[in-house]
Amino acid sequence: MSEHHEHHRHHAVSSGVRLYWALGLTLSFSIVELVFGWMSGSLALLADAGHMVTDGAALGLAAFSAWLANKKPSEKHSFGWGRAELFAALFNAITMLLVVAGIAFESWQRFMNTQPINGLSVSIVAVIGLIINIIVAKILSAGQDNLNVKAAFIHVLGDLLGSVAALIAGIVIWTTGWTPIDPLLSLVIGGIVLSSSLSLLKNSFHRLLDGVPAPYSLMELAEKLKSINGVVCIADLHLWSISAERSALTATVYLQSFDLWPEILHQLQHEMNDEGINHCTFQPELISDKSLDCQDILCTQLRY
Predict the structure, then answer these.
(1) Rg of the chain over CA atoms, in angstroms?
(2) Where would you find the membrane-spanning parts of this chain (predicted)?
(3) Last residue of some domain: 209, 233, 250?
(4) Separation between Cα atoms, residue 273 and residue 220, nearest integer Å
(5) Which domain holds residue 233?
(6) C-alpha span between 91 and 93 (Å, rounded)
């Protein structure tokens, strides 16, 4: 097993462990919030509990997909199962949008028909939730180079703010009796979830369509490869995601001579390794007067 593969395997396992811990804490407290939210009549607490249940499902799916992504490539899956993480992220984003729609509908219902709420119970549970979310956020904060872990971290931040909103609602209702604060803050929670959901949806869909993963730029990568001594120009440059953490790159490298190709290939791979791209395939070609204009070759490709 290569050093890079061993490093990736260790990183994937550590990401999975973070997700399992976060999953256990999140689901445990979501049950507490659901029970007390139902007993106290607080929509803010129920909305935050619903968000945490959704995050728990997202974490479970992310952990499962991380396990799949760690499976070795096979004859039928030559890249392995890395894209399971991208599908998990897309599915999680869609389900979160459904939760937002549910929160918005229920908030409107509560505005039209106010209900009594036990502000003290809401405040107590919200404080506990805030502590749990801080712990979970700390667990996930070290693994944000993984799309699933990053998405989970964003969700947990939303939960954390949701707990703050529920705490504020509980205190306001407990001290003033003004219950409209509950559905109002529920809409705030829904807005937080909506923002993170749309961002995750866009990112995961982009990667599943073989989009260039952020923060890479094809033009900048081409210039970096072209700067290597002996390389005349770069064409047919493609970069895409094969998992939440790994990217693959292919390119045609135009040369004046094949004499220095082994050394040039080593430098090409080294430059991309520095960029965090470790799965690279380079095709050497000799340049000639009849070849495409090297100054425009990549721009021509990008207009397709």
Answers:
(1) 25
(2) 20-39, 51-69, 81-105, 117-140, 152-177, 183-201
(3) 209
(4) 15
(5) 218-286
(6) 5
Q: Which helix (H) or strand (E) holds 126?
A: helix 119-140
Going by C-beta distance under 8 Å and a sequence separation of 6 or more, which residues neighbour residue 195? none
In a domain, 97, yes or no: yes
Q: Bridge-partner residues for 254, per DSSP?
A: 233, 285
Query: What mean pLDDT is predicted for residues 137-152?
Result: 70
Q: Is residue 295, in this structure, part of any structural domain at all?
A: no
Domain CATH code at residue 205: 1.20.1510
Verify that 249 and 107 share a domain, yes or no: no
Structure tokens at 35: 């029970």
Using H for helix, E for strand and C for coil, what is the string for 10-39? HHHHHHHHHHHHHHHHHHHHHHHHHHHHHH
User: ∠ CA(297), CA(303), CA(304), 5° rounding?
Assistant: 100
Instruction: Please count the structural domains in the chain.
Output: 2
- Asked if residue 212 has pLDDT above 90, the reply is yes
Q: Is residue 296 part of a domain?
A: no
pLDDT at 24 over 60: yes
Please list the residues that pair with 249 across neighbouring strands: 239, 280
Asked if 207 contacts 241 with a C-beta cutoff of 8 angstroms, the reply is: yes
**Residue range 276-287, pLDDT digits in tens:** 898 999 999 988
For 234, list phi and psi in degrees, rounded to 5.
Answer: -120, 135
Residue type for 54, please?
T
Strand order in the sheet with 231-241: 231-241, 247-255, 279-286
* Strand-strand pairing, 279-286 and 247-255: parallel
From residue 236, how far is each of 123, 138, 143, 222, 249 by CA, in Å?
A: 59, 42, 33, 10, 10
pLDDT category at 11 given cuts 50, 70, 90 is: very low
- Cβ-contact 102, 193 below 8 angstroms: no
Query: Which residue has tokens 């990112």?
Result: 203
